[in-house]
Write a structure and sequence with these properties.
Blueprint lengths: L1 H16 L8 H10 L16 E16 L4 E13 L15 E5 L8 E3 L2 E3 L8 E5 L3 E13 L11 E10 L7 E5 L3 H5 L11 E5 L2 E8 L2 E14 L2 H20 L9 H19 L13 H27 L3 H6 L1 H14 L4 H11 L11 H12 L5 H65 L1
Parallel strand pairs: 1-9
Antiparallel strand pairs: 1-2, 2-7, 3-6, 4-8, 5-7, 6-7, 8-12, 10-12, 11-12
Helix pairs in contact: 4-5, 4-6, 5-6, 6-11, 8-11, 9-11
Length: 455
């Protein structure tokens, strides 16, 4: 008998020493229970005629890149999808009050909702889990860096606004199987700028949203579109591109006040043109590259260079006319008409100048001079005196030659003065025409850019 009691005591002691098998956790049991007979390839509804409504929400974080050449925009967004899975429902009291769990996104059904404008997903991190609560509501949150195809209008650069859309739709399922809806109100989504990084080049204006159905192949498909309205901040480009160009144009305008007779004006204008060309080449990468049309700022730079070329050509023309000789001037019918019309009417030739010109007009091609009547009478009277010494006759001839040389020099200087006055008038006229063209072009650009900036 005692042996039996001893055996029982030893058995009880050994039973106490053996560790109990741990109970399976409530979370593990719940997960196994939900996914034991779950088929991720079947839409999670008990009645197949009931559509699954997927609620879409979008939060824009930043604009990473806008590429006008490839017509694409790179953005960082938070995408949220919420739907009801009728196969993932439980009673929290049976599983230690667990009301929400995370499960692998590969283990359950995920709607095939895509963005139609996707070009590349960029560097998005994979999120392998979704949240499921006891009522069957599934929350699928994904931060995404996406590259979207967008029709970019760069003509108003750097005062441009862009409108890029993100259209969510089911790739295969019609509206009878998968319907879409907004998780928040359209007003709340449009004015939500809390997460947007507003310190960059682009300013977020709003994100309006809309829902519609498209009829295709006798079937309706649900679409939700978010329009991202952004505006470029132009201060960087105004300071770096427009203001230096305007300063160079002002220096070119001021260079018109350099005197015509000096040769520094053309050299100065050539230096400005070369400097503007170098400035333009160095800032090529700052301008947007578009394959469709040229931005207005590119037209502005091209016209500015054309204006500099026009200014240089005008100065060369005026200087060329200024350095014509009297013989060349008289052979130029247009120049002669201008000289007769403007030079004589504005200033008038003095009597001595007219006398000198008439004297020059009577110069024989052989080189002989036709003297004035008084001088000819003196020479005839001297010739009649046969007794005069030859030295006195030589001296008188030298005095007459000196008189004619001085008269010719006065005539040339007077003609040059009148021609200089005419060239100055021509230069002033071309300068005013240049200012008129430049002011008209600058005023048109300012009005366009101002209208785009404050629109």
């Amino acid at each position: 008998m005692s042996l039996i009691w001893l055996t029982l005591l030893l058995s009880a002691h050994l039973a106490e020493c053996v560790p109990e098998k741990p109970k399976r956790s409530a979370l593990n049991q719940l997960t196994r229970t939900l996914l034991r007979k779950y088929d991720c390839g079947v839409r999670p509804v008990h009645n197949w005629t009931t559509p699954t409504t997927v609620y879409i929400d979008l939060i824009l974080q930043s604009i990473l890149n806008v590429d006008g050449k490839t017509q694409s925009i790179t953005t960082s967004i938070w995408q949220r999808q919420i739907w009801t899975d009728e196969f993932l429902v439980w009673d929290p009291e049976e599983f230690d009050g667990i009301n929400e769990i995370s499960v692998s996104s590969d283990a359950i059904w995920i709607p095939d909702v895509i963005v139609s404008e996707f070009v590349d997903e960029g560097k998005s991190l994979p999120i392998p889990y979704v949240y499921v609560n006891s009522s069957g509501s599934v929350k699928y949150y994904r931060p995404m860096q996406v590259v979207l195809a967008c029709s970019l209008e760069m003509y108003a650069f750097p005062f441009d606004k862009q409108n890029c859309s993100l259209t969510f739709r089911s790739w295969l399922h019609s509206v009878k199987e998968i319907d879409l809806a907004l998780w928040r109100s359209a007003e709340a989504i449009a004015n939500d700028k809390r997460e947007f990084m507003n310190d960059g080049e682009w300013e977020l204006l709003s994100i309006p949203s809309s829902y519609w159905q498209i009829h295709q192949d006798d079937t309706d498909y649900a679409h939700i579109q978010f329009n991202v309205l952004i505006r470029r901040r132009p201060l960087l480009y105004v300071v770096g591109l427009l203001i230096p160009s305007i300063f160079l144009m002002l220096v070119d305008v001021i260079s018109f006040y350099l005197p015509l007779s000096s040769g520094t004006r053309i050299a100065f204008k050539i230096s400005i043109l070369l400097g503007y060309t170098l400035f333009r080449v160095n800032l090529t990468d700052e301008l947007p590259a578009t394959a469709v049309n040229t931005p207005l700022i590119g037209v502005f730079f091209a016209v500015c260079m054309a204006m500099l070329m026009l200014s240089l050509i005008k100065s060369i023309l005026v200087v060329k006319l200024l350095h014509h000789s009297e013989k060349e001037v008289r052979q130029m019918s247009v120049s002669a008409c201008l000289l007769d019309k403007y030079g004589s009417a504005a200033h008038g030739f003095t009597e001595s100048t007219l006398t000198s010109i008439r004297t020059l007009d009577h110069i024989n091609p052989s080189g002989d001079y036709e003297f004035e009547p008084s001088l000819e009478e003196d020479l005839l009277s001297l010739n009649e005196i046969q007794e005069a010494p030859s030295g006195l006759e030589w001296l008188l001839q030298e005095l007459v030659s000196l008189h004619l040389a001085l008269s010719q020099e006065d005539s040339e200087s007077s003609v040059q003065a009148e021609w200089l006055a005419l060239c100055s008038k021509l230069d002033c006229f071309l300068f005013r025409f240049y200012l008129l063209v430049l002011a008209s072009y600058a005023g048109t650009l300012l009005m366009l850019w101002a209208s785009w900036s404050f629109a």
